[in-house]
């Protein structure tokens, strides 16, 4: 019995121990399986991370290529055009940003910062929508109103930046003083009777000086013309030229304003030269052209142009540079009220083939700016030269169809020989009758 009992106990014990071993083997297999499965999962996770990193790198490379492409080939055409408009406006108002290429670089940022400083904006070299809108609108406004009082006087005395500050002040509610048209009151004096004799004034105490002749001022002339234009409600039109002489004066003042704007745009692209240095160069232009303008009040335009053209060709200077220099000096002549400089620049430009600038020479001869006044015949010849060039497509200084129509209509209304229309003309009697 004891032996059976022992055997039974051993068998039972073995039955108990065997499942335990099997259980530990299953657990070991499960652990090994879990480790393998975990390794697979971790490996897949790592692969996914690697794929994500690769995708991110590819996206970054694509974005970098896109940014590089944008910098090299462009920003959108609309954005580049807006940038050009910003650069043109900055140059016009005296914030020199160099060439107008639509690319906002270091020089343009500096110009924007100067503009922001003058206008009281936060200075960061980047335009927000408000700053950009005011700049561009002011540029367009100046082109339309710079020749009208009182803005023409502000432009003449303070320059383009003074005009911009005036627009800024108006935006802030600060009114711009208006120029009042002088009113002439005609007093009607009572007619003297036989019983009353007008008393003779005592003139012994009045000063008596001998005054030298003063050169006419184109600046003052255009101020007066612009006041009258404003009083008349606007410029004369081609179909409504009631006063030919006044219409020509209006067109002269328009051309003068255009010349100053054109000069400022070109001047902004001149490197390494200050304003006084450029002005000194223009005084040299006046001296160089003066001998070739001798007798301009009596010579035909073709004679003057032939002489000037020969001089320019023999100067050894590239013709395109001479033309640009003439445009710069024409505007500086008007800005500094130097009629001789403006006249010489107009002759230079016409001699260089820019025949549309004959309009400038015509106005100067007609009104006596840098020349003797009243050269009606010669002035008309220069104007016809300019109009023929403009009608052939060689327009300058805003010679739009409207301007050409006014100039043409006014030219036909001006007497051919100014100053001789009042001379008497009598028929001659044949000799022998």
Which helices and strands, and how do they pair?
Blueprint (H helix, E strand, L loop, with lengths): L1 H72 L3 H16 L13 H14 L9 H17 L5 H21 L46 H14 L12 H24 L7 H15 L11 H13 L5 H17 L3 H13 L6 H10 L8 H16 L9 H13 L20
Helix pairs in contact: 2-4, 4-5, 6-7, 7-10, 7-14, 8-10, 8-11, 9-11, 10-11, 11-12, 12-13, 13-14
What does this structure look like?
- This protein has 433 residues and is mainly alpha-helical.
- Among the domains are: 20-49; 82-99 and 108-121 and 131-171, no CATH class; 218-413, no CATH class.
- The chain has helices spanning 2-73, 77-92, 106-119, 129-145, 151-171, 218-231, 244-267, 275-289, 301-313, 319-335, 339-351, 358-367, 376-391, 401-413.
- Helix 6 crosses helix 7 (244-267) and helix 9 crosses helix 11 (339-351).
- The protein is globular and about 95 Å long.
- Mean pLDDT is 77; it is low at 1-40, 181-189, 192-197 and 415-433.
- Pfam families: PG_binding_1 (PF01471).
- Residues 81-129 form the Peptidoglycan binding-like domain.
């Amino acid at each position: 019995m004891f032996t059976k009992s022992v055997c039974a106990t051993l068998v039972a014990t073995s039955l108990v121990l065997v499942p335990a071993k099997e259980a530990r083997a299953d657990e070991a297999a499960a652990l090994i399986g879990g480790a393998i499965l975990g390794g697979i999962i971790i490996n897949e996770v790592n692969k996914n991370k690697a794929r994500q990193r690769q995708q991110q790198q590819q996206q970054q490379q694509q974005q970098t290529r896109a940014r590089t492409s944008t910098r090299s080939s462009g920003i959108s055409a609309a954005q580049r055009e807006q940038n050009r408009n910003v650069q043109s406006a900055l140059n016009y108002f005296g914030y020199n940003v160099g060439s107008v290429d639509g690319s906002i670089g270091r020089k343009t940022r500096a110009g924007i910062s100067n503009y922001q400083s003058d206008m009281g904006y936060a200075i960061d070299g980047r335009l927000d929508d408000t700053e950009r809108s005011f700049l561009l609108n002011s540029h367009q406004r100046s082109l339309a109103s710079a020749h009208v009082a009182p803005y023409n006087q502000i432009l003449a005395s303070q320059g383009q930046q003074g005009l911009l500050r005036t627009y800024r002040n108006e935006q802030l509610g600060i009114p711009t003083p208006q120029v009042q048209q002088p009113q002439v009151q005609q007093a009607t004096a009572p007619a003297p009777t036989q019983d009353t004799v007008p008393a003779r004034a005592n003139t012994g105490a009045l000063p008596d000086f001998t005054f030298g002749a003063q050169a006419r001022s184109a600046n003052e002339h255009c101020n007066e013309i612009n006041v009258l234009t404003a009083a008349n409600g606007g410029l004369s039109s081609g179909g409504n030229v009631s006063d030919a002489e006044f219409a020509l004066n209006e067109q002269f003042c328009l051309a003068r304003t255009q010349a100053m704007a054109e000069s400022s745009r070109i001047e902004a692209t001149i490197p390494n030269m200050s304003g006084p240095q450029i002005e000194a160069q223009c005084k040299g232009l006046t001296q160089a052209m003066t001998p070739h303008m001798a007798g301009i009040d009596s010579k035909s335009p073709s004679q003057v142009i032939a002489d000037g053209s020969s001089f320019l060709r023999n100067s050894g200077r590239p013709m395109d540079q001479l033309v640009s220099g003439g445009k710069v000096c024409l505007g500086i002549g008007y800005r500094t009220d130097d009629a001789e400089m403006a006249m010489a620049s107009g002759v230079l430009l016409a001699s260089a083939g820019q025949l549309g600038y004959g309009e400038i020479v015509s106005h100067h001869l007609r009104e006596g700016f840098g020349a003797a006044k009243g050269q009606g015949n010669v002035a008309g010849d220069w104007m016809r030269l300019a109009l023929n060039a403009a009608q052939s497509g060689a327009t300058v200084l805003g010679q739009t169809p409207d301007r050409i129509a006014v100039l043409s209509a006014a030219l036909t209304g001006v007497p051919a020989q100014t100053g001789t229309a009042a001379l008497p003309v009598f028929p001659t009697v044949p000799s022998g009758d």
